[in-house]
Write a structure and sequence with these properties.
alpha+beta, 6-stranded antiparallel β-sheet, transcription, DNA binding, 41% helix, 4-stranded antiparallel β-sheet, 12 strands, transcription regulation
């Protein structure tokens, strides 16, 4: 995602975080552009977005920091100005499932924004992050005056429900290579960058993170990655995966006939 409007600083207020190699602070122009590019806010005027930004704040999180936990008070939603955020939950037995990774420009926490009830999952920073925080107490009065935004939020909630249904279907009906292939295709679509070797996924996830995304063990992920490396379908370097044969990986993700 390429946005303009960032104002460079000396980095003293944002230790460790970079944007395309430079330390940045995020000015109102950048934030405005980011929100207007998101489906949730694309339907409203720039004036209304400026009204939202007037009561929005910023929060900085270091790599691995917990942003909120399941059961925490649901006070509002957040937009990712920099970095990525892992959304997931841990069962009573200690098994973790990752629902999604929210990339730069994405929004999470919409459910709490609407109902104000406790968080339904954990959110954790992947890399140093900067978040735009929109509190429910400020946003609900705005929403009451903006029915088009309310309708768009309903569409977003429906999309989340569809994604959850697809996740449950994949877990129930697909074997590990199929689930793994579909995951790599999705990551490639969101974070892929074409190189002379293939499609490089520019998101560094551990084998444990990959396993959590498709409800399997790190050992199983390691074995499958090695199999595909031996078949020269993928390459793994410094934790980054490149799809050498993207179409063959996509074919793996198709249900057996």
């Amino acid at each position: 995602m390429t946005l303009s409007g960032e104002a460079a600083t000396d980095g003293s207020d944002l230790p460790g975080a970079t944007w395309e190699g430079f330390v940045r602070r995020f000015d109102p122009v950048f934030k405005r552009q980011l929100l207007l590019q998101h489906d949730l806010f694309r339907c409203i005027s720039g004036k209304d977005v400026d009204a939202i930004l007037a009561f929005a704040g910023e929060r900085r999180c270091k790599n691995g920091q917990t942003i909120f936990q399941k059961g925490d008070p649901g006070s509002g939603m957040m937009a990712v100005l920099l970095g990525n955020v892992r959304i997931g939950t841990v069962s009573e037995s200690g098994k973790e499932i990752v629902f999604k990774v929210v990339e730069t420009g994405g929004i999470f926490g919409e459910i709490a924004l609407l109902d104000g009830r406790p968080r339904t999952a954990d959110a954790t920073a992947i890399g140093d992050c900067v978040l735009l925080v929109i509190e429910r107490r400020d946003f609900v009065p705005f929403l009451e005056k903006s029915p088009q935004v309310a309708i768009k939020m309903l569409e977003v909630m429906c999309d989340r429900l569809r994604q959850t249904s697809l996740l449950v279907e994949d877990l129930a009906l697909l074997d590990l290579p199929q689930r793994m292939a579909r995951l790599l295709v999705r990551l490639g679509a969101s974070y892929g960058r074409r190189t002379r070797d293939g499609l490089r996924i520019d998101l560094k996830l551990s084998q444990k993170d990959l396993g959590n995304l498709i409800a399997t063990s790190r050992e199983s992920i390691n074995k499958q990655l090695r199999t595909w490396q031996d078949e020269e379908l993928i390459a793994v370097e410094n934790g980054y995966i490149t799809l050498l044969q993207p179409q063959q990986i996509a074919d793996y993700g198709q249900p057996a006939r």
